[in-house]
Design brief:
This protein has helices spanning about 1-25, 40-70. By secondary structure, the protein is mainly alpha-helical. It has one domain.
Length: about 70
């Protein structure tokens, strides 16, 4: 459970990179980073956010299963 939490935190932090770059390119010029189409950055962000959400659901389900087994024993 702790390993999943650490991984989820790291993925959550990494998820802000493509989102920030995509939003920053709309307002300021970041040079080479702005040559990549915005849809690519948003697609990367969606994939990373989906992974973050999946890990969150997995943690929730495992915690519930653990609590259920603890009360049954």
């Amino acid at each position: 459970m702790a390993r999943i939490a650490r991984t989820r935190t790291l993925i959550g932090l990494v998820g802000f990179i493509p989102l920030t770059v995509s939003l920053a390119c709309a307002t300021i010029d970041l040079g080479v980073l702005c040559t990549v189409p915005r849809e690519i950055y948003l697609g990367l962000w969606a994939a990373i956010f989906g992974t973050f959400l999946g890990l969150t659901i997995r943690m929730w389900r495992e915690r519930r299963a653990f609590e259920r087994n603890a009360t049954a024993a």
